[in-house]
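Feature request disguised as a bug: please show the residue count (240) next to DUF7894 domain-containing protein in the output. Example input:
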Amino acid sequence: MKVAPKVILLFRDPTGFGIAIFEALQPNPKSNLQKRQESLDLSLQRYGIKDQKVTVEVVHFLNGANLEVSLLLLENYEPPTLACALNEVLALLVGDGLSNMPTIIAPFVVAASKLKMENRTSVSVDNISVYGLQVGASSDLTKALCTNLQIPPPSLQLFNEQLACLLQLVQVLKMPTFVIIGKKGQNLHRKTSEEEHEVIHEIGQHLASLSSLSFSGEKIAWDATKSSKETQEPWRALYG
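Example output, currently without the count:
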């Protein structure tokens, strides 16, 4: 599958954040971008998984014949299938090698209770709601994003299985990757607060700035209800 030089990677997580971002990013009405959708199924048989495939929804934004941005939405797989599914998708993006490897931008919203860091800077980490983290190889795009977002301190610890798995794999594959991490409040047993909507909107604006996209934040109805599986993470040790 041919993708754009910029790939936004999303997960259909239980909270609905991934699908909300996937649907809210649209071509800017003032631009010449066109939207093209497709889907693909990837086999997991080489991992011994015969009864499940990787399902990916894809949206390409094109300027004429040129691909500007590709959005990939993966289903919500549980470990250890998660690692196998994500590895298949990343291998597809790597293509022939470093010469045409895209830059991955992966947004996540993580509860404050699952972000652990020591504040050794003059800026209070409690006042920062969106961070940027470069991993894998660097590219012009990751360098540009680093100038626009606060970089978390080296002491950062993330407790999110999808994100932990992604970080491990892109470093092994040496893929240029930039992770946008939104911090949400402690209370997960309710609908999204106004503050959390602001976090999502800020992430959306950063993603829209990658090309001539617009972010329809007013259409988002994100349910931040906690899932029981979120607290268990039985396969966390697989990813370090």
